[in-house]
Amino acid sequence: MKNLIAVLFVLLALFVGVNIGGYFYQSPLIKYLSNITYEVSNDGFSIVEPKINGTTVYLVGECRVISFDVTQDQAYSIQRGIERSVGTRPLTHDIMKDILDVFDVRILNIRIDRYEDDIYFATIFLQRADKALELDARPSDSIAIALRTHTPLYFRSSIMQLKGIYIC
């Protein structure tokens, strides 16, 4: 079991580092909970639908849209997730989905939940049997994983109201 967790942690570590605007942030393991039934409340969050145009990601929900730019690699992975296509060679997010499936790790929730210093932050909640894991992640990786695993993507409503552009 420790080997499985170590493998998952190493693979997820590929996603959780942030290098935005000259800042380097390596996400710590926020919580590791064992022997409990883990539930994630979505109070204060709304489901958003990701769209992409070039390297600009749009998250649409609550009659509002939030946009931010990503790298070409991230945009390509998100676009493939939206199209539900897998190329001749898998991308990192495709591999991550396969690992989660093989080891029976279930995604409980994916949400963009913070905005600090002009940077959005996301959290991925995972569970396997009676073990749960909460990871800090980049929104781009969170979106790509949510699309591949058919997991709804949640966005903090207060941030959507504050930062989103009204479109209805």
Q: What is the CATH class designation?
A: Alpha Beta
Mean pLDDT: 85
Number of domains: 1
Q: Span between N and C termini?
A: 49 Å
The CATH homologous superfamily: Bifunctional nuclease domain
Largest sheet: 9 strands, mixed
Which architecture would the CATH scheme give at its second level?
Answer: Roll
Considering DSSP H and I runs of 4 or more, what fraction of the residues is helical?
A: 25-40%
CATH topology: Bifunctional nuclease domain
Beta-sheet strand percentage? 35-45%
Tell me the Rg in angstroms.
16 Å
Main sheet strand line-up = 3-9-8-7-10-4-5-6-11
Number of strands: 11
Number of helices: 5
Q: From the helix content, strand content and strand pairing, which structural class follows? A: alpha+beta
Description:
The chain is α+β, with helices and mostly antiparallel strands and 168 residues long. The protein has one domain: Bifunctional nuclease domain, CATH 3.10.690.10. Helix content is 33%, strand content 40%. The protein has helices at 2-16, 72-83, 92-102, 139-149, 157-163, and strands at 18-20, 23-25, 29-34, 45-53, 56-61, 64-69, 106-116, 119-128, 131-137, 153-156, 165-166. Helix 2 packs parallel to helix 4 and helix 3 (92-102) packs across helix 4 (139-149). The chain is globular, with a radius of gyration of 16 Å. The model is unreliable at 14-35 (pLDDT under 50).
